[in-house]
Amino acid sequence: MTAAKAPKRDRKPAAKKRRDPDLAPAAGGTRDEYGIFDFGYVGDAGATAHYADPNYYSSTYQNRRHDVAYYVQKARASRGPVLEYGVGNGRVALHIARAGIELEGVDLSPAMLADFEERLSQEPAQVRARVRLHQGDMRSVRLDRRFPLVIAPFNALLHLYDRRDMEAFLSCVREHLTPDGRFLFDFSLPQPADLARDPARRYPAPPLKHPETGETVRYAEAFEYDPLRQLLLVRIELEPEAESPAYSVPLTHRQYFPREMEALLHYNGFGEILYTADFTDQAADKSVDSIVVSCRLSAATG
Q1: What is the pTM assigned to this prediction?
Q2: What is the C-alpha to C-alpha distance for residues 113 and 88, in angstroms, rounded to an integer?
Q3: Do 285 and 207 reside in the same domain of the chain?
Q4: What is the Cα–Cα distance from 298 to 302, expressed in whole angstroms?
Q5: What domain count does the chain have?
Q6: Which helix (H) or strand (E) holds 218?
Q7: Whether residue 91 is found in the same domain as residue 133
């Protein structure tokens, strides 16, 4: 019996990150106090802590399937290969590979990529052969290859906090798209109610069970918004009912408004910009939660 081969992976160094030394690596959480002005640069704890525990991440989003089906459909239509930014532990990419489409994935998190590799090791050889992973910053990784479909699912672009970050990333997308290729991504529409919430208030949710320890954990969220940087901090507060100490996981998302996103794409070389609603091909309207954006290289760029 032949041992399962590890997936192909280029081990490129991740960008240097200013990490809070009090972050607990296993949980991605901290017991220290923090606020919105402690965050706001690519690779900081607000962009990475939520992805430090792949088991917790998988458990949290195990029922999120509608976007997976949508991206698989578009990958099949493109016939591949596909480039995915923010590939993580393969929540979307693994299904694309199972559908017979070759995929390369880029992610900053070594923990998420290692978990993806472990998941791939359990897949048939033909699925493993379709996947190549790259650790690195999506603003700078160059693969020397073009793709008919480039995707960035599940709010990946919301970890690009200022115009320069977005421009560097879109430059990479342009370099990796075929002349007639499509760039496809989604982002959550800013919700005025979330942006106006009192940061001192906690919003409880039903308790959950930690996927590794089995402990019942009380769960609450708090929201803090900086309107000048358009940065939203969500404090995910977790309190185990056993004797384990409580901790908090920061998650920061840049709030991009639809017309702002359209302008960024237009002035960075993209055209045929189409907005659709919630992983359908229906036009977006005021009731939309997630906007899906499809665009091409503009004629002058292509």
Answers
A1: 0.88
A2: 6
A3: no
A4: 6
A5: 2
A6: strand 216-226
A7: yes
Q: What pLDDT was estimated at residue 4?
A: 46
For position 156, what pLDDT does the model report? Answer: 97
Residue 156 belongs to some domain of the structure: yes
pLDDT at 9: 52
Are 293 and 187 in contact, with CB atoms under 8 Å apart?
yes
SS3 280: coil
Under a CB-based contact definition with an 8 Å cutoff, are residues 161 and 155 in contact?
Answer: no
Angstrom distance (rounded) from CA 98 to CA 71: 13
Alpha-carbon distance of 296 to 274, in angstroms, equals 10
Residues 120 and 163 in one domain: yes
**Rounded to an integer, what distance in angstroms lies between the CA atom of residue 146 and that of residue 35?**
41
As given in the structure block, the two tokens for residue 44 are 């900081």
Q: What is the mean pLDDT of the chain?
A: 89
Distance CA 88, CA 108 (A): 8
Q: Long-range contacts for 24-30 (Cβ within 8 Å, ≥24 apart)?
A: 24/247, 25/52, 26/52, 26/53, 27/52, 27/53, 27/56, 27/247, 27/249, 28/52, 28/53, 28/56, 28/249, 29/238, 29/247, 29/248, 29/249, 30/247, 30/248, 30/249, 30/250
Same domain, 208 and 64: no
CATH number of residue 113's parent domain: 3.40.50.150
Q: Which domain holds residue 226?
A: 23-47+191-254
Q: What percent of the chain has pLDDT over 90?
A: 74
Domain membership flag for residue 17: no
Which residue, 25, 27, 19, 21, is CA-closest to 247? Answer: 27
Q: Give the chain's end-to-end CA distance (angstroms, integer).
A: 48
Whether residue 68 sits in one domain with residue 214: no
